[in-house]
Amino acid sequence: VSAARHDATFGFSAVFDTGASQEDVFEGSGMRQLVELAINGFSCTVFAFGQTGSGKTYTLMGPLAQRETQPASPALLGLMQRSFACLLEQSQSRGSDLALSASYLEIYNEQVRDLLSPGPPCTLPLRWSKTRGFYVENQLSVDFNSLEAIVSLLLQGSQRRRTSAHALNRHSSRSHALLTIHIHSRGVSTDPAPGEGLGGVHHSGANSPSLGCTCPSKQGTLCFVDLAGSERVKETGSSGELSVEANSINRSLLALGHCISLLAKPRGKRTHIPYRDSKLTRLLARSLGGSGITLMVACISPSSRCLPETLSTLHYACRARRVTTRP
């Protein structure tokens, strides 16, 4: 970053300029490897972070105007649709041993709401257990086995998300959205053919010895998090309900930043990580500091007017890059 009184250098795993295509971002960000890791039973998360209007939703989903009846041009599709296609290709190449389901929720004004359940979005309780960690109670999970089905779920949920217009963005997300793909790979048993069992006899009775081998089943997740953009109320001109939403968004992003700063410290110097400070940090606890693998996409605006927010985003991303997890 080269600007008056702000000469700073930042290093990242990959950097894409304004000329990069959606395909470039998918291939260059490591997203394909993340999909493969999720299939192999890992818990993987990708989240887009940055100021309002910097292109987070576009990077993840592509153009906002797309509908089921009017899909976007394939070249403009985002990380999510490309990951779905990659996941289903892998699923088909492995045979039918993968069971796929999806859940989709938003955090709006510190309330967790299901975006897939029929009727108006209902508020769901967030619970904690020793075995599962933080989880959302009664969340709807929908099975799918085709690209059309999961894209339809994505568009259906996205249209129910809270958005508003302000001075910096005509379609500003007013909530954080989390779409989670659950990947259950069933164990495949390979019994020998008749005549290849013990002593040339094929056993099939209840007490017969087990033959061949059974692969253990694996459960992986692939979670996409579209964070609402940080915003300065003075710049966006927000007032009334918009101002309340902005304060709620900024508070949860501040809590997320605080957790990331503490996680970036060496393990011996870490104090208590305050995941309970917001619903967002509770739901991202395992992705940030647990046994997951996480990709952070930091989106910045090329406008000089946005320099303070750009520097804030880059410092945030640098801290996130120092966080190490044990998948």
TrEMBL record:
Keywords: ATP-binding, Cytoplasm, Cytoskeleton, Microtubule, Motor protein, Nucleotide-binding
Superkingdom classification of source: Eukaryota
Cellular location(s): Cytoplasm, Cytoskeleton
Main location as per UniProt: cytoplasm
A Gene Ontology cellular-component term: microtubule associated complex
One Pfam family matching this protein: Kinesin
Residues annotated as transmembrane: none
Coiled-coil region(s): none
Listed PANTHER family: CHROMOSOME-ASSOCIATED KINESIN KIF4A-RELATED, KINESIN-LIKE PROTEIN
Entry protein name: Kinesin-like protein
Source organism of this protein record: Pitta sordida
Lineage per the UniProt record: Eukaryota, Metazoa, Chordata, Craniata, Vertebrata
Chain's gene name: Kif12
